[in-house]
Amino acid sequence: MKVLLISCGDVGTEAGFRFQARGAHVTAWRRNPQKLPPTFHGQQVDVASGQLPPIDPDTEVVLFTPVPASRDAAGYEHSYLQAARHLVTALQQQAPALRRLFYISSTR
Length: 108
Known about the structure:
Number of helices: 2
Structural class: alpha/beta
């Protein structure tokens, strides 16, 4: 199984480890990919920018755990709404094998 973790922070990283334990190939996108575990295929991506790398068409599971770019209305709109729109468009076009999209939002 191929899994894509988007905005991969603490929650995404833990999920990624659990997917890997079940034999999944994990790709993780994050603004700062140096913070990703070396076992993940990491890429520097800001989803809200709309500049997304190609998505592996065999991706079956996507876990999106957005983090606001700033703690104000504009930051939340940018990171939650705009990012989700860009992501859904890209998934519709590039991920025909997609079975599940998880959108997880948490509070501090």
